[in-house]
């Protein structure tokens, strides 16, 4: 399940309604450009304190991919 | 043989001396004989900078420039101890990449505060009697972002644009006080701040950025030498200038 705070941040970056950010929603259809890319990394760092590796982020195709990536990073982050 | 960039005996305050360009500036100026007052917030990084300075007569100053209103008083008390400063280099700053829609008013204010307002107050303080010497020189670290738009840099570019406009005014206004005021408009330099860029974009994106620089990405020393040029005798007749040091990016 995607995280609420993550989806709020993503919605702000992409200027989309939360309703549009379903798990299957395709990033390429949602204003996901290089600026969104960089902003996402900044947002995750700011809200969750983890650094998203760009190469892994570049492999994400859907909202679910983003959520899964951030979940993995948060869970494996040192306390 | 004479070194026209010799800075022997000049006391120069460098803010943001704890890393990246600021450290390179402090080191380079010390190699040219200057006595450095290295200012920053982080004590460990500041101590590391101090250990790399050549020559003697250097000191560190822990000061948080976000206490903007206290800057002139800080300079007055600092120079009561060190004697008047010959130079001021403002290298402290932040480089956030953030689109307009996620830049809050507070984000904007934070960027403007350290990148621009601190420079304003430092100069106001530097201008006070007994704070500067008779051959005083100020250099602000600006950026090519002030004159070449790149997405994601609205607050940052605004802060640097403000610096450059202020440079021109103060060059005229402070000439009567025999204070020269200049800026170095730097391009992308390989430091923690911009090395931070490498960590937030893919290799392809990074190469696309590097590709805009005919001479590639710069090194901190490239910028430091330009700062030294403006501070030394080589800059004697230069004021109100924004010296572009950017590997050809703006060409």
Lay out the secondary structure.
The complex is a heterodimer of chains A (79) and B (251).
Chain A: H1 4-14, H2 34-48, H3 54-58, H4 63-75
Chain B: E1 11-15, H1 20-31, E2 35-40, H2 43-52, E3 59-62, H3 71-82, E4 85-90, H4 105-126, E5 132-143, H5 154-173, E6 179-186, H6 192-198, H7 203-210, H8 220-231, E7 242-245
Parallel strand pairs in B: 1-2, 1-4, 2-3, 4-5, 5-6, 6-7
Percent strand of chain A equals under 5%
- Superfamily (CATH H level) name of chain B: NAD(P)-binding Rossmann-like Domain
How is the quaternary structure best described? Answer: heterodimer
Largest interface: A-B, 17 and 14 residues
Termini separation of chain A (Å)? Answer: 23 Å
Provide the low-confidence segments of chain B as ranges. none
End-to-end Cα distance of chain B: 35 Å
Question: How many extended strands of chain A?
Answer: 0
Rounded mean pLDDT of chain B is 95
Given the C-alpha coordinates, what overall shape of chain B results?
Answer: globular
If classified by CATH, what would the architecture of chain A be? Orthogonal Bundle
Radius of gyration of chain A: 11 Å
CATH level-4 homologous superfamily of chain A: ACP-like
Number of domains as seen in the coordinates of chain A? 1
When the domains of chain B are counted, the total is 1
Strand order of the largest sheet of chain B: 3-2-1-4-5-6-7
How would you characterize the largest beta sheet of chain A? none
Residue-averaged pLDDT of chain A: 90
**CATH top level of chain B?**
Alpha Beta
What does this structure look like?
The complex is a heterodimer of chains A (79) and B (251). Chain A is an all-alpha fold. Helices cover 56% and strands 0% of the residues of chain A. Chain A has four helices and no strands. In chain A, helix 1 packs antiparallel against helix 2. Chain B has a single domain, classed as Rossmann fold. Chain B has eight helices and seven strands, in the order E-H-E-H-E-H-E-H-E-H-E-H-H-H-E. In chain B, strand 5, helix 5 and strand 6 form a beta-alpha-beta unit. In chain B, helix 3 runs parallel beside helix 4. Chain B is globular, with a radius of gyration of 17 Å. The termini of chain B are far apart. The mean pLDDT of chain B is 95. Classes of the chains: A mainly alpha (79), B alpha/beta (251). Chains A and B meet through helix 2 and helix 3 of A and loops of B.
